[in-house]
Amino acid sequence: MADPWLTLVGLNEDGLDGLTPAARHALDQAEVVFGGPRHLALARVGERGKPWPVPFDIAPVVALRGQRVVVLASGDPFWFGAGGSLAAHLAPHEWRCHAQPSTFSLVAARLGWRLEATDCLGLHASPVQQLLPRLAPGGQAIVLLRDGPAVAALADWLVREGWGDSALWVMESVGGPRERCRTMAAAEAAAQLSQDPAHAPVAVALRAQGGTALPQAAGRATDWFAHDGQITKAPARALTLAALAPRRGERLWDIGGGSGSVAVEWCLAGGAAISVEQHAARVDNIRTNAQRFGLHHQMQVVHGLAPEALAGLPPPQAVFVGGGFDDAVFAALQTLMPAGCRLVVNAVTLETEALLAQLHAAHGGQLLRLELASAEPLGRMRSWQAARPLVQWSWQR
Question: Which positions, given as ranges, span the membrane (predicted)?
């Protein structure tokens, strides 16, 4: 790292006054400086300044390889900043970074919050639904938002999800001379912000109150999901996820997705999923569920029928077949599944059950028969109402 051509400089709302001598030197020597309009104004770089293209693209920076270039970002460029996007396309010797305290650190310091006990999210271009799995009574989060209207949108979403009692700290221009902090309940935010809107740069700290936290274990109740009745019921889904054994960063193929509930719970465990479904209305339900939980980056929906719809998909580490399993699908999976891939198939029909028994005899694995019954009213009393028996075959290639 003798003489990198690119320098990443963290710039907060105190502008040049907050920079180290090394960061100031890099900025003074730069031939071209990239940043948002606000950062370029704070850095006072004049005609050397180049605003980021819209939509955001690092190509103009990489095209200047060999010139002296500075990229400005808020606080720490590698925490929801441009640093990671740039470093992925550069060799280590091509860049250096002069970071400052992140906005998260500044907000936590103002409020006296332990940062390690606080969820931190950059929601500039991401859905607020990403907060849903993290909300719990008394839980704390700090989120970075695009602009003032996004603050009102966050508060409205909290109210719709039942978290209207949550306390919000709306923090503008934190770390600079224009810093302002206002406290309000989410349910009151729309009225207050309509009279006195928030202005970028803005972050919101929240302490969640009043709602129902999303359970963290697999087998969540069916009323969390949009569905038309075609959904793996909660107890069977818990057993299915246990057999699939999700691991962080792994990819699931969810074939015959129905509502996508198995794919959703896989993604909530830290993975990614591709849900394949032949019926258009159910495809819509899967997309609705992915959006409900803020999983649009982790879940892909393919409208089609296996095995044809599986062609060209990135390889999985696990496959779940909840419907439409037959010899042709298994033959295709034997070709497409990499070594070590896990397969779980659920069957409720006699024909599919017979096929699973044959495959278990030929290939091994584990074959389970699951019989569940729930207590239901019977006249003035109660009785057991049995669900259809479920046969599950688990196998590792």
Answer: none
**In the chain, what is the greatest distance between 2 CA atoms, to the nearest angstrom?**
85
Asked if 225 contacts 257 with a C-beta cutoff of 8 angstroms, the reply is no
Cα 93 from Cα 3, distance rounded (Å): 8
Strands (E), the chain: 6-10, 32-35, 49-51, 69-73, 95-98, 119-122, 140-145, 167-172, 180-185, 202-207, 251-255, 272-277, 299-303, 318-321, 342-347, 366-370, 373-378, 381-386, 390-396
Beta bridge partners of 246: none
CA distances to 254, 309, 323, 340, 383 from 336, rounded to whole Å, are 14, 12, 18, 12, 46
Whole-number Å distance between alpha carbons of 129 and 61: 32
DSSP 208: -
Which parts of the chain sit beneath pLDDT 70? 1-2
Per-residue model confidence (pLDDT) at position 69: 97
Peptide bond into 55 cis (omega under 30): yes
pLDDT, position 265: 97
Element (H, E) at 289: helix 280-292
Place of tokens 């580490």: 317
CA quadruple 149, 153, 159, 164: dihedral sign? negative
